[in-house]
Amino acid sequence: MSRQITSLLAIAAVAVSLATPASATAKEEVDCTQVKCIALTFDDGPSKYAGQLLDTLKKEKVKATFFLEGQYVKSRPAFAKRMADEGHELGNHSYKHPNFTELESWAIRSEIQKTQDVIKAATGVEPKLLRPPYGMTSITSSEIAGEFGMPQILWTAGSKDWSSKNEEAIKAQVLEVAEANGIILMHDWVKQTVDVMPKIITLLKRRGYTLVTVSEVIKQYDIQPGDTFPLPDGWER
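Now predict its structure.
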């Protein structure tokens, strides 16, 4: 009798395991003070190529950070939802990509709030990071980011993909600027970036990098809402 009960318990345990969705399992913690981390970030999406990029990231088992424009989340909500469902980090990149340094305070707030609302509606996730369009920021936009409880996230280096639109050039640039705790600017609307991503990921891994989200990189620093990271030239913390 006891042998039968044991067998039934074992079968039940397997059934529970199979019924548990992947999203319910504990996320593996990465300590970027102990391993060589790098964060790939993609601006201006989700683009029409987002599905292909997400397929690559899923196959390679890496996470990225997507700074999304509200207008494209509204037109492609399924891609935004898939990003969130597959464990990628979502950031706010304004609604229509205006230069924040040329806007009045109320307009900056509107751009941020509209994007928060549309991302939350599409994904159930409320972004915790803001990337101002073009990386153009000011004390005013920093203070407004603080009102929303978000730091402003810039980048340590760019892929220059929007300019070159060449697979080999994009790959070479990323490998040249890659560094521990680097935050790399890329764009998922550049098809060449999406096409060359498998090679970039393979080569970064080969060089010892662990590909993580921005939040995993910056958690070792004392980044507060309203802070800008990395600091623009001439700014003081």
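The chain has one domain: 30-229.
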